[in-house]
């Protein structure tokens, strides 16, 4: 899906969209490999500017594979990294030195003297001369042939935070609060994230002959849109890329989700020109978009509203009758509302995906929670309803969530144990186990408030949790899949709820869903599997956008309070900003804000007015997901 930007008045730089992060990584690795080979054939070195963080990991894996399997040599490659925390020692698990050697350099034949990363372990007084020296080395190497960039939610490229001028060079900067809170889970607490970093400047980056901005994940969708559709401003340093004459943004579907071409493609011209058609889904999407844009209730939208917003083509499909279109949009949302998420005793609403188990009552329901807090955070009200309505509810906690626990909490529990005369094990394994036990206590207390007894809780301890103080490879193992498949077989559920987000490609939610997808494939031939309905809640306590909502479960004021009580049982998380992308609010505030916003949107659009709502979608609404 490539759109030359000349054809697209909303996008200011060329954009290429791939379905998932792996496909993006291959595209970038192909370009880098071709550049290295071409330069080598011409007898030249290749000078690469490199980034760290979660986004480029896939590119580095793809390059290592090309080196190992396709004889791609890095002997003629010189690299300059964008940035490094300050102060930090090179062997610190969080240092970008360590990241680069572990993820890339140590697997290649690159010459160590050709690797350059800003030094984080120098005295403050030496920083400016060291930065000047870094710029000099880039110039001596002949300038950057290709600079690979990610983007931060603050709009930074490198660590050029908002306010960075276009003329900036390599220097010491103070990290933005958003940047630090995004890094907090990895550092196990905001207070451990360094406040400063050394970064190449905007001018240094823009001097590269070729720039690739690689962005994956829905959590970056809003900033991507601002960066490529917004006006150039130092408040969003990534907008400076609009002035580069050889830049491409490579995005996965999650990161591209807010671009006009995906969010409101009708604004770009006839739908057919974009390979789309005015089917039910597109019609409802456009009607809801229009109602939100105009601030009107759906059933009050007029022909003038449709015309003024550029929806003439849609109006024409309904013979000019706005009301017909309005009804479609209205019933789409109306039919999603249900107080019976497990289905009514008579098998009617919610509309099941596959239907076989619709009339079974009560049902066996299995909820997958990637971290111990995800279940109550995103669907605590629905959980309690399912249990209260007599269903047999089971919850599987996929990872231990140990890594998000501040060290201080463990210390407090250990002190309590010691003072009560208990002897606790020492060493990394024992400590990890103790972290997990603390998180299990939280989860058990929260589930109890929702009416789920401890014998229906499963702590699977799958492999893809962060391990405290270690740089780990995050991927789903065969054993993870087996563990889930065994549980599925044991419970034989009629309904499954799973968390979904398209955020960090190696994030816990994504890997949680991937492990479930593979386990469902492995169990697809079992009798329960063909009748089992799957609902996705959105990870991290957030809500689905209106057009994606297939089931909306209203919460009364007292249910909201119970959900809040359940979430606050995860009190050991209170000290740290644990949700990627969150500012350090209390967890329950974060989720109730989303739930309330959904209920308010339903109200504004002319549907019933509820206190709060939890939302679910079917897997086919989310790309690269579950069973087909
Ligand atoms: C890293 C860097 C940053 C990251 C950005 C995105 O060297 O310069 O600009 O590219 O913060 O980080 P991730 O990929 O972790 O979301």
* Bound ligand species: fructose -6-phosphate
Beta-strand residue fraction: 5-15%
> What is the residue-mean pLDDT, rounded to a whole number?
91
Would you identify the regions where 5 or more consecutive residues have pLDDT less than 50?
1-6, 577-582, 623-628
- Provide the structure class: alpha/beta
Largest sheet: 8 strands, mixed
Task: Count the beta strands.
Answer: 18
**Alpha plus pi helix count:** 20
What characteristic shape results from the CA principal axes? Answer: globular
User: Quaternary status of these chains?
Assistant: single chain
Indicate the radius of gyration in whole angstroms.
26 Å
| Lateral strand order in the biggest sheet | 1-2-11-10-7-3-4-6
Residue share in helix: 25-40%
- Give the terminus-to-terminus CA distance: 23 Å
Question: How would you summarize the topology of this molecule?
Answer:
Elements: E1 2-3, E2 15-18, H1 21-41, E3 46-50, H2 57-70, E4 77-81, E5 83-86, H3 96-103, E6 115-116, H4 127-140, E7 146-149, E8 171-174, H5 177-187, E9 196-199, H6 202-206, E10 211-215, H7 221-229, E11 247-252, H8 253-256, H9 260-263, H10 280-294, H11 303-308, H12 312-317, H13 322-334, E12 364-369, H14 374-388, E13 392-397, H15 407-419, H16 427-449, E14 457-459, H17 478-491, E15 495-500, H18 508-522, E16 533-538, E17 551-555, H19 557-568, H20 587-604, E18 612-617
Parallel strand pairs: 2-11, 3-4, 3-7, 4-6, 7-10, 10-11, 12-13, 12-15, 13-14, 15-16
Antiparallel strand pairs: 1-2, 5-9, 8-9, 16-18, 17-18
The protein binds fructose -6-phosphate (F6R).
Fructose -6-phosphate (F6R) binds next to loops.
